[in-house]
Amino acid sequence: MKPRFQFTIHATEGKARTGVIQMRRGEIRTPAFMPVGTAATVKAMKPQDVRATGADIILGNTYHLMLRPGAERMARLGGLHKFMNWDRPILTDSGGYQVMSLSELRKITEEGVTFASHIDGSRHMLSPERSMEIQRLLGSDIVMCFDECPKIDQPRDVIARSMEMSMRWAKRSREAFDAGGDHAECSALFGIQQGALDESLRKTSADALAEIGFDGYAIGGLAVGEGQEAMFSTLDFAPGQLPADRPRYLMGVGKPDDLVGAVERGVDMFDCVLPTRSGRNGQAFTWSGPLNMRNARHAEDTGPVDPRCSCPTCATYTRAYLHHLIKAGEMLGAMLLTEHNISFYQQLMQGMRDAIAEQRFTAFAADFRRDYFRKE
Amino acid sequence: MKPRFQFTIHATEGKARTGVIQMRRGEIRTPAFMPVGTAATVKAMKPQDVRATGADIILGNTYHLMLRPGAERMARLGGLHKFMNWDRPILTDSGGYQVMSLSELRKITEEGVTFASHIDGSRHMLSPERSMEIQRLLGSDIVMCFDECPKIDQPRDVIARSMEMSMRWAKRSREAFDAGGDHAECSALFGIQQGALDESLRKTSADALAEIGFDGYAIGGLAVGEGQEAMFSTLDFAPGQLPADRPRYLMGVGKPDDLVGAVERGVDMFDCVLPTRSGRNGQAFTWSGPLNMRNARHAEDTGPVDPRCSCPTCATYTRAYLHHLIKAGEMLGAMLLTEHNISFYQQLMQGMRDAIAEQRFTAFAADFRRDYFRKE
């Protein structure tokens, strides 16, 4: 039988690692990028096309799914995998981040958060226990602890108190997850480190999580406006505070250069809306940097979006056509650019995995940055 | 070498006909439904998926394409087929209808129409000669004469004068098309019958077109608000006024029951935005009638949109999932329902072609109407 959750590191170079997570629904090659499927769809893509880009796992958002279609309804319909026709692993977040950024009339107590839906104003509650229940009802493969993600620019004592509550919530999440019967026996639970940019708070958080014990450890509370330099400074110490034999997941990151810099610092997993959202907005990521497809210089350019890219969009369509579609507001423009961007991200991850395996990741990262930041 | 344009009728039943049009870029099985690809894309579908539904030919809109990306630009980019990755036949309309319905500051003279773009207000001109030139620059396979499509509820003398001008424009279109060199030798030109609901005006128009001589003949000026009963009354005589050995194309039609009724009356070709537009709006066509996927009764329905449909959407997804996607405003909902609707239309056409070939079209049409109008 396939293991519930087994992480094997195949090679390292400096702090960078490559390996594989084995789970019941399939393998996740690391470093891994998880496309975001917020509302039971990776926006503007069919699931078979998401898989064809090389994605081993996608992310679903607990906050959105609990509001629509609803967790109990999803369970009656057979769970998220069947609902959206994705049979490989799905990681669900806890709802903690979105409830802070999207909902209204929030009230946070030690028990949890009550809030009003941004869709219809209806009242809801999230707590460690309810978040575990919802993620179980969805059928999540990798469940995230319920935590609070505080604004990054607050005083240290505010960040500390928030982190400490998140650690108490992590323990309650662990206990509620473990009580989950069959689901707990075939899925995994990740803890989330908090502490903003503060090394000692991050250390306290990491130790508290390790004491509880999780299948993997996320670095939370970053990519919230602190900038790449501050994020990298934090990543210079945060991953190393977490257990070395477990996957480390940097939540909500990021730009292609963020991913390379974070892998260099020991991160194994990522998720971000950037490739999908940018695709809908006419931005294409390439090995030569991002391109704004609305730019008039593409109007008669018969070359592909990225000559080094192997995706169906680049094999088939010209920059001129994509420029036209985006300018005309055509859905196909969003579809083709999303597919390109997700594929580009997967090619970047594959490039990093191969480079680490072959002990040439330092050169890979240098080449990447040289090409990505060179002006065309 | 493949013929430039050859129409072969394989079987008839009553006035209904089935056959094939052979052209350089491929065969068009008739009765044929042409998905509308207004701005060089069948909205929300990849071209290979359009083809997989069974579509032999698509339609492009001259008005939209002349404004964006522009006819001369399209020619520099290698033509519409290459631009949008569709290598089978494309029919382009003349721009005459859209310039009346979409543009601003129109001025119509015997020479043609001057107007302002609905996109940016820029000034443009369309005439029989310019329309032929644009359709040649696009690389159209079936070119439509430039005509005026008058409002249907005007006095007979207004309709008559408009029709007479359209017939003079048809002659100018023929002459301009024939002067088109290589393009004229590998593409076809269709005339457009006008005359609104009036049998004698329709006859005058049909005779004028036959005198000029075209590869096929369209019935124009219908599906503009007159209602199905008036449309069918007109189709009781209009197709029979046109040359029997040429394809008859009913422009801008229609609902599934419109198509069946028009095929019964001798029509061979159709185009309509309904399946694509409805798909984006959450409406699904089925053998049991149209469904509004927003309706709450679908929220936990694990059946397919249409159990008789063979499309990928019906093979893969539940009504519950499509309901969720449409309610959430997800692009994938529009993508999957558009694919279903175009596929349903193609299955309906295939059903009619098979039934006529097997001399059971009367029963097919009766069965269709019984199921389509029966309340679920």
Automatic annotation (TrEMBL), chains A, B:
Pathway: tRNA modification; tRNA-queuosine biosynthesis. Its cofactor is Zn(2+). Homodimer. Within each dimer, one monomer is responsible for RNA recognition and catalysis, while the other monomer binds to the replacement base PreQ1. It is an enzyme of class 2 (transferase). GO terms for molecular function: metal ion binding; tRNA-guanosine(34) queuine transglycosylase activity. InterPro entries: ArchSynthase1/Queuine_TRR (IPR050076), TGT (IPR004803), TGT-like_sf (IPR036511), tRNA_ribo_trans-like (IPR002616). Pfam families: TGT. Keywords: Glycosyltransferase, Metal-binding, Queuosine biosynthesis, Transferase, tRNA processing, Zinc. Residues 15-373 form the tRNA-guanine(15) transglycosylase-like domain. Binds 1 zinc ion per subunit. Transmembrane segments: none annotated. NCBIfam families: Q_tRNA_tgt, tgt_general. Belongs to the queuine tRNA-ribosyltransferase family. Signal peptide: none annotated. Catalyzes the base-exchange of a guanine (G) residue with the queuine precursor 7-aminomethyl-7-deazaguanine (PreQ1) at position 34 (anticodon wobble position) in tRNAs with GU(N) anticodons (tRNA-Asp, -Asn, -His and -Tyr). Catalysis occurs through a double-displacement mechanism. The nucleophile active site attacks the C1' of nucleotide 34 to detach the guanine base from the RNA, forming a covalent enzyme-RNA intermediate. The proton acceptor active site deprotonates the incoming PreQ1, allowing a nucleophilic attack on the C1' of the ribose to form the product. The active site is at 93 (proton acceptor), 271 (nucleophile). This is Queuine tRNA-ribosyltransferase. Substrate binds at residues 93-97, 147, 194, 221. Residues 252-258, 276-280 are annotated as: RNA binding. It catalyses: 7-aminomethyl-7-carbaguanine + guanosine(34) in tRNA = 7-aminomethyl-7-carbaguanosine(34) in tRNA + guanine. GO terms for biological process: tRNA queuosine(34) biosynthetic process. One of its GO terms (cellular component) is cytosol. Its EC number is 2.4.2.29.
